[in-house]
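Section 3.1: Structural characterization of target chains.
Under the original work plan, the team committed to producing a structural model for every single-chain target entering the pipeline before any wet-lab resources were allocated. The record below documents one such target. The sequence was received from the expression subgroup and is listed exactly as submitted; it comprises 81 residues.
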Amino acid sequence: MKKLLLIAFFSLTTLTQEALAQCAMCRATVENNLSNGDIGIGAGLNFGILYLFVMPYLAVGIIGFLWYRHSKANSKKYGSV
């Protein structure tokens, strides 16, 4: 179990560093488009950021809800322990 957590930690830190490197390119693209008068890419980028921000929380919430519902059904079926 500890080995799995260690592997997950190092893989997440590697992915985070790679993701932070992309921010400079996105910012440069948005600034370039804004200086040319095009605001569409900035709005699309903001929507994409919000979409990526919400999805993990939504997935965890759905899994938590299903887990709660399943445990509640098991407690009714087998009685309280």
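The two ends are 28 Å apart (CA to CA).
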